[in-house]
Design goal:
- Strands 1, 2, 3, 4, 5, 6 and 17 form a seven-stranded mixed β-sheet that branches. Strands 8-15-9-10-11 form a five-stranded parallel β-sheet, covered by helices on one side. The chain has a three-stranded antiparallel β-sheet with strand order 12-13-14, with no helix packed on it.
- The chain has helices spanning about 10-25, 55-70, 135-140, 155-165, 185-190, 285-305, and strands at about 1-10, 30, 75-80, 85-90, 90-95, 100-110, 115, 130, 145-150, 170-175, 195-200, 200-210, 210-220, 225-230, 230-235, 240, 270-275.
- Helix content is about 20%, strand content about 30%.
- The longest helix has 20 residues, at about 285-305.
- The radius of gyration is 21 Å and the shape is elongated.
- β10 (about 170-175), α5 and β11 (about 195-200) form a beta-alpha-beta unit.
- The chain is α/β, with parallel strands linked by helices.
Length: about 300
């Protein structure tokens, strides 16, 4: 069988495209290891339009249920599979997972991104031994303790807000003197009496015994080196695009993103579109990923029906 469209990814972008594709009756296959994307680790999402506040897990369930409501004659879903490679055979495209090969006329890549790891001495040794990449998952284990958050974007401030609910203190270490987070979020978090900030701070080393007991950092302006005593370090330093499977067919940019035409979301390869956090779009958020995927789907539909 040759599908008209294969969608790779089960986050806001992939699901949005899947719903639109099913409504347009395109013969579609959606492949994803799981649903929800990066937002599954968020305790409370407050900018998903139409919902005042929702947890990441609930958003993932809603996305999956919405898609399942359209599954059937035109939409097939393969959950629990991960794409390993994409190949071109004439005008047809082949999507290869660990289980099977699927043939299609067009592809939409919507695989999002994964968390960037802290790369300093001690980081690997203390991964999951006090060095944490998910505050909503493991934060409660540090109730009543002093912890640090590494980063200056929305994810860092959201993690800090969660931790402030039960930790003794939270210190945020930011590499610059500016924050990348939304102003309303910054203002709310910094107003908490147990919140501290160390700007222009570069992490040098993670230390501890059996578990983390502190970190060394350097002030980038003065060069002064100091130690912060904490029992937990929560890392929020950005994301890495989940695009390795596409590198054999698409030329990725220097950080692994898929370059796209912002008008249509088309890539440099005929028949392949991309949307969401895996692309080189200037801004990455759930609502933007969803919108970009719908834009791509409309262009895919026109392309297919023009043949």
């Amino acid at each position: 069988m040759t599908y008209e469209l294969i969608i790779i990814g089960g986050g806001p972008a992939g699901v949005s495209a899947g719903v639109y594709s099913a409504r347009k009756k395109l013969k579609t296959l959606l492949i994803t290891p799981d649903f929800g994307g990066q937002s599954t680790v968020s305790e409370g999402i407050e900018n998903w339009i139409g919902t005042i506040k929702i947890s990441g897990n609930d958003l993932a369930k809603n996305l999956k249920n919405h898609l399942l409501a359209y599954s059937g004659e035109s939409l097939e879903i393969k959950e629990g599979e991960a794409v390993q490679d994409i190949r071109k055979d004439g005008e047809k495209l082949i999507v290869i997972t660990e289980k099977e090969e699927y043939h299609t006329q067009t592809i939409l890549i919507a695989t999002g991104s994964t968390r960037r790891k802290l790369d300093v001495p001690g980081a690997k040794e203390y991964d999951n031994r006090g060095l944490i990449y998910c505050a909503s998952c493991d934060g409660p284990l540090f109730a009543g303790q002093d912890v640090a958050v590494i980063g200056g974007g929305n994810a860092a401030f959201e993690s800090a807000a969660q931790l402030l609910a039960y930790c003794k203190s939270v210190t945020l270490l930011n590499r610059s003197d500016r924050f990348r987070a939304d102003e309303i979020t910054v203002k709310k978090v910094l107003s908490h009496p147990n919140m501290k900030v160390l700007n222009n701070s570069e992490i040098i080393e993670v230390q501890g015994g059996k578990f983390v007991d502190g970190l060394y950092y350097r002030n980038k302006i003065t060069g002064e080196r100091d130690r912060l005593k904490v029992s937990g370090i929560f890392v929020e330093i950005g994301l890495i695009p989940t695009t390795d499977f596409a590198k054999n067919i698409i030329k990725l940019n220097e950080i692994g993103q898929i370059p796209t035409d912002p008008r249509t979301q088309q890539t440099s390869i005929l028949g392949i579109w991309a949307a969401g956090d895996c692309t080189d779009g200037l801004y990455h958020q759930n609502n933007i990923a969803s919108g970009d995927a719908v834009k791509a789907l409309e262009d895919i539909y026109i392309t297919l029906r023009a043949k």
